[in-house]
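Private note to self, pasted from the team thread so I don't lose it. Backbone tokens:
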């Protein structure tokens, strides 16, 4: 198999893993939230770690969703330039934007590494015996992977000719 074919298969596996993890987290959140509501309304008490878990799961879902959106180029973007410049210049601006986003996400990942290290030193518990730094590890991982995706997309755009626009309908 060729190198681009192996890369494409590898990226497809990563995308599938992201989707599975997102689905599991959302499913767990729905089940636990419903169970917590039922326990509180019927028996007047709930599971002590459910609320912190739900908050932590929301953080993970947010970053995993952003990572998935970045991989599919479905992320939020402010795009004023492409409406006013020719197609060739549009590509240059896209490359610049991708590389700038890679740098910003890289800085965020570096800051998150320091933050998670600080949380590890503190030794606080998030919920159910799980340390806070373990929950927060998604911050440097998510921003680091987004940085790599933006960088790869920017570099890829330098070497791959964009599809032709227009044509018969």
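Design output:
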């Amino acid at each position: 198999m060729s190198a681009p074919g192996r890369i494409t298969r590898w990226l497809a596996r990563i995308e599938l893993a992201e989707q599975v993890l997102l689905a599991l987290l959302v499913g767990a959140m729905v089940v636990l939230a419903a169970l917590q509501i039922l326990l509180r309304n019927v028996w007047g008490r709930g599971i002590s770690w459910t609320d912190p878990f739900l908050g932590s799961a929301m953080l993970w879902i947010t970053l995993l969703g952003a990572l998935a959106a970045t991989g599919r180029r479905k992320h939020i973007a402010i795009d004023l330039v492409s409406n006013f410049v020719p197609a060739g210049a549009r590509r240059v601006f896209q490359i610049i934007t991708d590389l700038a986003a890679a740098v910003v996400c890289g800085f965020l990942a570096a800051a998150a590494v320091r933050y998670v290290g600080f949380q590890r030193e503190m030794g606080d518990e998030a919920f159910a015996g799980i340390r806070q730094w373990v929950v927060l590890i998604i911050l440097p991982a998510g921003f680091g992977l987004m940085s790599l995706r933006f960088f790869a997309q920017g570099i890829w755009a330098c070497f791959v000719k964009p599809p032709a626009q227009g044509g018969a309908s």
